Amino acid sequence: MSFFIDHPKARWMLPVAAIGVIGATALTVTQTANADSGLQARTAAQLLADVRSANVSSLSGTVVQTSDLGLPEIPGLGSSGRPGLASSSLTSLISGTHTWRVWLGGPTRQRLALIGSNGESDVIHNGMDVWLWSSADKTAVHHKLSADQVRAGSADKRLPSGLPSGVPSTLPSGAPRTPDEAARAVLGLMGKDTTVTTSGTASVAGRSAYELVLTPNDKTTLVGSVRIAIDSQEHVPLRVQVFSTKLANPAFEVAFTAVDFAQPDARQFAFTPPAGTTVTESGDLTTPKAGASADPAPVKTSADPSAKVQGAPTIVGSGWSTVVVAPYTLPSPQNGGAGGSAADSAAQLGGILKALPTTSGAWGSGHVLQGTLFSLVLTNDGRVAIGAVPPTQLYSALAAK
Amino acid sequence: MSAAESVLTDGPQRVAGSDGVPLSRRLSTRLLRSELRLIAGRRRNQMGLLVLAAVPVFIAVAVRISSPREGRGPDFLSSITSNGLFVPIAALSVELGLFLPLAIAMLAGDAVAGEANLGTLRYLLTVPVGRTRLLVTKYVSLLIGAVWGVAVVVLAGAIAGIALFGTGPMLTLSGTEISFGSAVWRVVLVSLYIAVGLAALGAVGLFISTLTEQPLAATVALMIFTILSWIADSVPQISWLHPWLLVDQWMAFGDLLRDPPFWDNIAQGLRVDLAYVVVFWLLAWARFAGKDITS
Description:
The structure holds two protein chains of two kinds.
Chain A: H1 2-6, H2 13-30, H3 44-53, E1 58-67, E2 96-105, E3 109-116, E4 119-126, E5 129-134, E6 139-144, H4 147-155, H5 179-189, E7 194-204, E8 207-216, E9 223-231, E10 237-244, E11 250-260, E12 278-284, H6 298-301, E13 308-309, E14 314-316, E15 323-329, H7 340-354, E16 358-361, E17 364-370, E18 375-379, E19 383-387, H8 391-400
Parallel strand pairs in A: 6-12
Antiparallel strand pairs in A: 1-2, 1-11, 2-3, 3-4, 4-5, 5-6, 7-8, 8-9, 9-10, 10-11, 13-15, 14-15, 15-19, 16-17, 17-18, 18-19
Chain B: H1 3-8, H2 23-26, H3 30-41, H4 43-65, H5 86-95, H6 99-118, H7 121-125, H8 131-165, E1 170-171, E2 177-178, H9 180-211, H10 215-233, H11 264-289
Antiparallel strand pairs in B: 1-2
């Protein structure tokens, strides 16, 4: 103590040291530990085979998805009404940062909980029942699966994605909900025009993982590379990062921040609508709508949830630089039908789309949206072109039609 | 400890302590008890507690007499009718924005700046107590003040809520129902989490309080700090700063009402709280121990 009496100014060293220690600790924690974890080297081909044969039937964990797609800020879509607060609405997955928890107990039991600020949306699949729960408006939607669908689900040996196919939900069809789902979408897209390499090991959610790097050979695409971190033991993708050619940081990332491969408690999959809840029975499920699986890239579809595609889309090009051209009509506030808020957001979206910069060329004229991973052109004659390419490619695709 | 102090500590009950301060006195809670008596005795603090307690009662009565209607009020408001324990939670979420930080700001303003302003600080230091010990006592009393304030809100809310809405099962955010007993535990956890956040704000307040001799200036400065933090937290363009803001995870107490509770944000909030406590208490110590006490 006498040191501080002789040197009163030296007292300030203590808080400064505390700030230094805290800052350094925070930095080392957030920095992805890329140290060599002593894993055996595996080739890209071996890793691809690992991912395709992964067989994980139980899991619980937390997934964080971040996206920087270069979309205009859409109030009420990206975030909830209040700024700074994450929304728990399932339709808001397309921009910003989102956290959800996944539980997986075999092929017939899954639960996905989207964590919002003081709200939560759950999708619970247990046997023949699928429940959608929303804490914000205290509603539950009940779907009854047919025996065929249950069997189809159990036949699928892969890591289920949280929702059995065919459930008409408010989930955006494009946004992958687990790293596994994102990895599958990317691997499905991958063709001969992709260079597959490994970049050693990474640490994701406290587990050591191999990293697979997919680089498109096609130089016209906006996708710079895709990195998939694969768990070294369970061979499940733990993280998928999509890099844009425009950004240094991932434009889209979905990753586990915590994961446990033990069988979760059966209680997680039990859902009985609590008293005071509005329960909607959806009736029998019909055939699945054309969804994410039909689209060439997961991020593309999320760009344009409002433009209702009514005609058959035309595919121009192939691989990473695929361009989809489709007729569209803007949803008008009158035909919203579902309710006031839906009509409101449709009108809002229509306004936002109209506010996009205009462009014209040999193909006509319209509005253009330049994202970090995709571009979108809405022509004035009622066509929409979208692809993971710069707008010039879209213009030539539109002109070719 | 200063030289003058060790002379003054010579007394009949002196135990051979390493730096001359008897062990019994170092562990004595006399200073703390007198500090708490002072805090509890101030009329403005009693009025403040009354306001804190009035909010949950007001919420409970308003929900009771109005017919159930659709609409989005503050968080958890719509859940009150099913379980009375949502009254304290709704009240906390309402008061966490302004009233509870204001209560801490009042106490923090009085803690050092108030004593300096009244001219009692120098008498306190001749008692004799070391400045470090005085600062620890002041901080512990702020901590107790934070728990006190939250407890008043929660108890008033729980009593009003249970009286008006009963003790049904609690609906978690995940859509499951938990028994009243475990609901009580959830509310206790929520209260503790909020009290820790307020105690961290108290450390900031203590530091500001050592900078000035005007208690009002310290109170206003701490409120400005709080409100600026809320504003910064709501600007998405500076999202890199958000994890470092004290208030960033304050509202995460809702995660304790999930089934099972979601700990990630709570843990992050507690880490930030702890960092603020350490840094700002040390800043206050560096400032106070070297400060000239002129009044």
